[in-house]
């Protein structure tokens, strides 16, 4: 049996209580109560956590429950965002910011030329997708 892709086995948990550490999350999501199964990794950052299950079926079962309660707090779960190495997302943009200012920011922060990317603002102009002409790599940043 072929191992399912990492993306199919990865979920995000939102609204994780501060008092819940990675070990407790692991115990809960490996337990039948959650519908989960054995985990490969658990990474908690603030009130969010990323879980990678051994089997995609366990991740799907956890997702099918929608909400999970731990320490009397309701946590929600969702599929982890896919990683597209040709796109970056800028959030929290002031809608009145002119495009030229955003271009200068992108060029200075990432070290790109104006021909290396295209900006796609959301209808509200508070989110902008940066479409890169070549895949993003860690060495791409100059700052």
UniProtKB/TrEMBL annotation:
Highest rank taxon of the organism: Eukaryota
Pfam families per record: RRM_PARP14_3 (PF23085)
Spans through the membrane: none
InterPro entries with a match to the protein in the record: Nucleotide-bd_a/b_plait_sf (IPR012677), PAR10_RRM1_2 (IPR034464), RBD_domain_sf (IPR035979)
GO MF entries: nucleic acid binding
Name assigned to this protein: RRM domain-containing protein
């Amino acid at each position: 049996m072929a191992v399912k892709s990492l993306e199919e086995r990865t979920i995000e948990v939102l609204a994780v209580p501060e008092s819940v550490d990675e070990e407790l999350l692991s115990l809960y999501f490996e337990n039948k109560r959650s519908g989960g199964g054995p985990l490969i990794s658990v990474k908690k950052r603030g009130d969010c956590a990323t879980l990678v299950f051994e089997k995609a079926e366990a991740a799907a079962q956890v997702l099918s429950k929608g909400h999970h309660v731990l320490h009397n707090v309701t946590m929600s779960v969702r599929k982890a965002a896919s990683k597209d190495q040709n796109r970056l997302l800028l959030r929290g943009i002031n809608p009145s910011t002119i495009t030229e200012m955003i271009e200068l920011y992108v060029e200075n922060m990432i070290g790109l030329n104006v021909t290396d990317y295209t900006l796609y603002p959301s209808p509200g102009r508070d989110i902008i997708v940066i479409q890169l002409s070549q895949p993003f790599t860690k060495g791409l940043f100059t700052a």
